[in-house]
Amino acid sequence: MSYYIVIPAPVRHSKALSEGAKLLFGDIAGLAKKEGYCFASNGKLAEIAGTSTRQITRYLTQLESEGFIRREDIRDPDENRKIYLSTEMSKGVTETSNSLDKKVKTPLDKKVEHTNNTLTITDTNYPFGMVWDLYGKKVEKKRSIQLWSKLSDPTREKILKHVPLFVQATPDKQFRPALAVYLRGHRWEDDELPVAPSKKTAPWAKPEVTANRVRSCVVCGAPATHSYQGQSYCEDHDQYTKRAR
């Protein structure tokens, strides 16, 4: 198997294929890139894909129904079944694989590349999932992936060191910008970390009810200024207290 898999755009964007079938095509393409076909049995493919032979059978049926592969059953017991890539798929896979073979020297020499209409998926030192889980605020994922894929490994390393500090400075996710905003704004290059908003009550918030209650005038309900014989009165109704005297 190669260090990478090649999934042509028609396979990747097919609505008739399950995600498992699309990935299986990449595995088959890796085995068949030299001759245009492979001898792998369902059991071998299941071992590679980490699934059951029954599931592999379903995936192969989907791929064959859509014309991406062709299976050739061999009656001779000394020969194995062959799985062919379609002519169009075989050509695209071979051209892309040959191009990558000249560029990819080791499993750690990795990028996500687009060659014509073929998407090539390879490994990376710092996959997107690392920063996605570390950042914590999981919104705008698609845009975040696009921005992350354009960054060099040294830049990704700087970001992964800065993100924990940034998250610590913005513990409330409500005030933490989306990862896409962080990446687009190069926030890891800021001289200072953001300051978390104060937890003081906002001026528009409902005031707290205190134990001290303002007494009201028993006549009009206005704030009382004095009391007489257990009753409270305001200045305008002071005559009530004088009359009582």
SSE order: EHHEHHEEHEEHHHHEEH
Q: How are strands sequenced across the largest beta sheet?
A: 1-6-5
In CATH's first tier, which class of the largest domain applies?
Mainly Alpha
Strand content: 5-15%
- What is the overall shape? elongated
Number of helices: 10
The biggest sheet, with number of strands, parallel, antiparallel or mixed sense and barrel status, is: 3 strands, antiparallel
Please name the fourth-level CATH homologous superfamily of the largest domain. Winged helix-like DNA-binding domain superfamily/Winged helix DNA-binding domain
Helix/strand-derived category reads alpha+beta
Radius of gyration: 35 Å
Assembly type of the shown chains? single chain
Mean pLDDT: 75
Which key phrases capture this entry?
single chain, alpha+beta, 3 domains, three-stranded antiparallel beta sheet, 10 helices, 8 strands, 42% helix
Give a concise summary.
The chain is of the alpha+beta class and 245 residues long. The protein is built from 10 helices and 8 strands.
Topology:
Layout: E1 5-8, H1 9-12, H2 19-32, E2 37-38, H3 42-49, H4 53-65, E3 69-72, E4 82-85, H5 87-103, E5 113-115, E6 118-121, H6 128-135, H7 141-149, H8 153-169, H9 179-184, E7 226-228, E8 231-233, H10 238-244
Antiparallel strand pairs: 1-6, 2-4, 3-4, 5-6, 7-8
Helix pairs in contact: 2-4, 3-4, 6-8
